[in-house]
Every structure is written in C-alpha cells, then in structure tokens.
Amino acid sequence: RSAGLYGREFVVDENVLIPRPETEHLIDEAIAFIGEAPAAALDVGTGSGAIACTIAARTNARLDATDISILALGIARTNAARLEVADRCSFHHGDLVEPVKHASFDVVLANLPYIPTQDVPRRPDPIAFEPRVALDGGADGLLYYRRLLAELPAVLNARTLVLLEGAPPTIGGLSELVRASLPGFAISVHRDYAGLDRYVRAER
C-alpha cells in the first residue's frame, strides 16, 4: 500500500499511521525556516518517515527520527531509500527524544498520538484499522506531548523552531503546555486546509 504526502508516495502498512494532508503545514513551516542552511532537524514519532523524508528531500537538512515501533522504523527506512535521502536520515528506536538526548536541533517536529482514549475510533471506522499506539493520546490526549515537552528544552539550539500537530479538541491544552515548557518562545496556533486549529508553532 502507499499514501501520498507533499507530492510524494510513501509505503505504508498496518504498523504506521496513514499520512494526512494536514501534516503538510508542518512540513511547509520547517522548509521555510530551514531555507538553504545545513540544519539539524528531529522528527519525533516518525511512523512511516513521511515528514523526515520529505524535509530531507526538499532541504539540505540532516534528519534524525525516532519511534518506539521497530516495525514502523522498517517502513521509514524503506521510504528514505526510495526517496534517495537515506544518507541524510537517521532512524532511531526508542521513546520520544531518548535516543537522541545528547544531540541538539534547529527544528523539532512531532505528530504524536493526540486522540483522548475514550474517543479513539472503533471498527468499522477506517481510522480504527490504524495502529492504536499511533492514535491513543491518553486520558486527555496530551499524555505524550506532556512527556515530550518535559524533555525538549535539553535538545534545542539557541535559534530553533518547534512544530507540534494536534486537533481542535486538544489544541488549547497543547498550546498551554508549550507556553509553560518553552518560556521566551513566540508561540502561535495555526489552522489546516479545513480552517480547523491543527498545530502549535513555537520559535526562539
């Protein structure tokens, strides 16, 4: 199976989330911020690797990407090879930023599970066939972002951009978490193609 994102096709299977058009906004922001610079970027919870591979293909950045699923990382490496960006994409098995905790980054992107547990779709909803680990964000949908934001300051460079994807029901809580965790950053909430609040942008 394959799915399109940002004008490219990515291999997907039952072990990864299907890339969504909404995520293209994060990629746009990252590409604009990086420009021609040889930046270091981190994709947390990479899944199929679509975000990391696309940014590597469109910039001179070096990408690190993490995931707790070995099977997802296999798909991500396949996609990096297919797009001929494997030389600038490093995929790491582990939890959030733990595998790269001694590095530092100019850009960090994350599309972590953000659906509250009680709202995770059930079959026959097509979304229910995607891996639950990629959907279930805990009781309030912010479990993983709360943990990520506690770890994030230690891996950010002096000039840095953080992009976190969410959804309208939880985006307010996510933006408050970002404000508390990243003081001194310019923080804003941005909308997707449908005009819905979709991601938090934080720049220092």
Summarize the structure.
With 204 residues, this protein is α/β, with parallel strands linked by helices. The protein has five helices and nine strands, in the order ββαβαβαββαβαββ. Helix 1 (24-34) packs parallel to helix 2 and helix 4 (143-151) runs parallel beside helix 5.
Main features:
single chain; 204 residues; alpha/beta; seven-stranded mixed β-sheet; two-stranded antiparallel sheet; 9 strands
Structural class label: alpha/beta
Query: Which assembly state applies to the chains in this document?
Result: single chain
**String of helices and strands:** EEHEHEHEEHEHEE
Instruction: Extract low-pLDDT stretches.
Output: none
* Individual helix count: 5
The biggest beta sheet is recorded as:
7 strands, mixed
Q: Compute the gyration radius: what is it?
A: 16 Å
Q: Provide the β-strand percentage band.
A: 25-35%
Task: Tell the overall outline.
Answer: globular
Overall strand count = 9
Fraction of residues in helix:
25-40%
| Order of the strands making up the biggest sheet | 5-4-3-6-7-9-8
Mean pLDDT: 91
Our measurement of the CA-to-CA distance between the termini, rounded to an integer number of angstroms, reads 39 Å
